[in-house]
Amino acid sequence: MVRRVMKNSILIIFIFVSISACVNSDVYLKYKSITTHGWSKDSLLTFDIPVKDIASRYNIYVNIRNRGEYPYQNLWLFLNRMTPDSIQTNDSIECYLADNHGKWLGTGIGSVLQMPVLYQQNVKFNKTGVYHYSIVHGMRDSLLVGINDIGMQVEKVTQKP
C-alpha cells in the first residue's frame, strides 16, 4: 500500500512538473476575421499590443489563416506601427503560403490552413504602453478571396541557460 501511494505521488509530481515546464511565452495573440466575401484593399486590421516589460526581447509573428481557394502562392502585407509616443513606422512583408508546385505550406485540419510568419525577431521595445499595429493587404486585387483570418502574436524570447 505504501509503495502504491509512493508511486502515485511520484506520478502526480512528474505530471505537475511536466505541465509547469510547458509555460506559454505568448504575451499577445489575437486574430481578426475576414469576411467570406473577401478582404477589401481598404480594410484595415488593427491590433493594440500592450507592452509592460521593456527589459525583455520579443518575437513578433503575423499569423495567416487561408482557405484552399486563395488564388496565389504569396501574400503581400503592409504594416504600420505606432509607438506609445506616436512614432510611426511602415513596413511590408511577403508571406509565402504555397511552394512552387502549389502545395500549401501551412498546417491545419480541414479547409483552413494556418501559416505563422516571423515578422520581427529578438525585438526590444523602448517604451511601455500600447503599440498600435495596422495591416492591409498589398495584393493587386481590390477584393482578395481565400484569406480567413489575420493574427498577430508576440512572444517573449526565453533565454536558455
Detailed description of the structure:
With 161 residues, the chain is mainly beta. The protein has one domain: Jelly Rolls (Sandwich). The chain has one helix and ten strands, in the order H-E-E-E-E-E-E-E-E-E-E.
Outline of the structure:
The chain contains 1 helix and 10 strands; from the N terminus they run H-E-E-E-E-E-E-E-E-E-E. The protein has one helix at about 1-20, and strands spanning about 25-35, 40, 45-50, 60-65, 75-80, 90-95, 110-125, 130-135, 145, 145-155.
**Would you count the extended β strands for me?**
10
CATH architecture: Sandwich
Percent in strands: over 45%
CATH topology (level 3) name? Jelly Rolls
Structural descriptors:
single chain, 12% helix, 161 residues, Jelly Rolls, 1 helix, 4-stranded antiparallel beta sheet, mainly beta, 48% strand
Q: Which helices and strands appear, and what pairs or packs with what?
A:
Layout: H1 2-21, E1 26-33, E2 39-40, E3 45-51, E4 58-67, E5 74-82, E6 88-96, E7 112-123, E8 129-137, E9 143-144, E10 147-156
Antiparallel strand pairs: 1-10, 2-9, 3-8, 4-7, 4-10, 5-6, 5-8
